[in-house]
Amino acid sequence: MSNMVNKHSIPEVEMMDQSIAMVAYWDRNLICRYATEAFALWFGRQLDTMINTIEIKELLGDSFQGSLPYMTNVLEGKVQRFECEIKTPAGEIKKSAVTYSPDSENGKIDGFFVHIKDIANDENKNLPNVPGKYDDLKSFNHLAESVFNDVDVTLKSCLFTGFPGISKLSKLHFISESKLKRDFKAKFNMSVFTYYRNLQMELAEKYLEEDRYSKKQLAVIFNFSNPSNFIACYKKYLHDKNEDNSFGKIHRITADLCYIFVSQAPIALAMLDKNMHYLAFSNKWLKDHNYANGDLTGTVYNPGLLGEKLKFKEVYKTSMQGKINRCDEELIEKNDGTKTWIKWEVRPWYNDKNAISGLLISTEDISVLKTRDSEKDDVSEILGKANEIARIGTWKFDLKNKKTSWSKVSMDILDIPVGVEIDFDIIIKLFKKGSDRNLINQVYNQALTKGLTFDIEADIITLAGNPRRIRVISYSEFREGACQKIAGIFQDISKPIV
Question: In the chain, what are the domains?
Answer without folding.
Answer: 2-135 (3.30.450.20), 192-259 (no CATH), 264-365 (3.30.450.20), 376-492 (3.30.450.20)
